[in-house]
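Team,

Forwarding the record for the chain on the shared tracking sheet. I've put the sequence and predicted structure together so nobody has to dig through attachments.
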Amino acid sequence: MYVLVTYDVSTKSPGGEGRLRKVARTCERYGQRVQNSVFECVVEPADYHEFLERLKALVDDTEDTVRLYNLGKRRSQAVEIVGRREEARLDDTLIV
């Protein structure tokens, strides 16, 4: 399923920059960054809970916010892109 992830991690407190990097790295495992603090991810339903738990373990509940929007299986019908397109095909095989 396609999941849009947005986050706001406070960098004013000690450890904030580290949390910010860790949240970004976790999201990179599942998708691509489309803007600062915004990722389009492809997550198998069986892996969604693990992804969510990883994010929960990283954030400070009193200072940070992470939002996950489930776009379902048909991203092409749920997303309109205006302007520069730098998108990878998230459903294709990716070799790193």
